Amino acid sequence: MKFDVPNISKQIKKLNFIKQFEYYDEIDSTNSYLLKKQNLTDKTLVLAEFQFKGKGRLERKWLANAYENLTFSIGLKPKLPANELGYLNFCTSLSIAEAIEKIAKCKVETKWPNDLLLGGKKFCGILIESQFEENQVGRSIIGIGLNVNQLLFQDEFKERTTSLRLFFNKSFKREDVLIKVLKQFSKNHSTLKKNINAIINKWKLRCSSLGKKISLTNNKDIFTGIFEDVTEDGSLILNQNGKLLKLFSGDVTVIKE
Ligand code: BTN
To answer: Which residues of 205-222 are buried (b: 16+ CB within 10 A; e: fewer)?
Structure first.
């Protein structure tokens, strides 16, 4: 079923958080669009039914069927110092976890840096892209891909991917999920600076790989060690026999012993 756009607009107005809302049946990528947009208004939401060049982290593609999922971006002009950019990572993934937990009365897992899992499988990915002005974040585009009602995934993703419908065995109204996520995000975002420690702690409570032996792969290296902690700037601290290594990006896999 298509999005009920007038209803979404109405509900967004009630939230009193989003300042501008744009909807597209088809777009290259909601993130790319907002990165290029002239005179971006702070808190602009762009929702698309289908992206033909959806982007994932680490130069990957984000594939999502039309009419079944949520693909949207929130454009912010956060006025954050560059080293506080990581706050947005934690705020976004925690907000989505809390929103789904409220909707479906379940426990959502966070996975570093900002994936969300149900039953160990990914149902939501976040891509935050930022532009800097001097040492400040000029604009940050928070892109969210949330698998809602999609049942079939390409073979290479099948094993590690899920959707709300696959996991809970029932379909969800995409509008409701979107509004709940925005509501939770607006709540956490409004107290972000003051409450960053509480936000990170709530994120950590949901992160099952924390404290475990992991391997972290980025494009060229593999690091193994104990997942010791995360820092406010969003990095992962790996403990390699007492030596602490700070890592900024990569994919985490728990090593079963
Ligand atoms: C990841 O897990 O690799 C991040 C995926 C982020 C996908 C979303 S969908 C909306 C926004 N537009 C994009 O092109 N990407 C993000």
So the answer is: ebbebbeeebebeeeeee
User: How far is it, in rounded angstroms, from Cα 12 to Cα 237?
Assistant: 38
**How much is the pLDDT for 243?**
97
Distant-in-sequence, close-in-space partners of 242: CB < 8 Å, separation ≥ 6: none
153 lines ligand 1 (CB under 6 A): no
Q: What does pTM read for this prediction?
A: 0.97
Q: Is the CB of 60 under 6 A from ligand 1?
A: yes
Domain with residues 5-205, CATH architecture: 2-Layer Sandwich (3.30)
Q: Which of 33, 71, 116 to mutate to test the pocket of ligand 1 (most atoms within 8 A of CB)?
A: 71
Q: Give the pLDDT of residue 136.
A: 87
Neighbouring-strand partners of residue 217: 222, 251
Domain ranges in the chain are 5-205, 213-254
CATH number of 213-254: 2.30.30.100
Determine the pLDDT at residue 109.
98
Q: What is the CA(148)–ligand 1 centre distance, in A?
A: 14
Q: Return the closest-CA partner of residue 47 out of 171, 144, 147, 187.
A: 144
114 lines ligand 1 (CB under 6 A): no
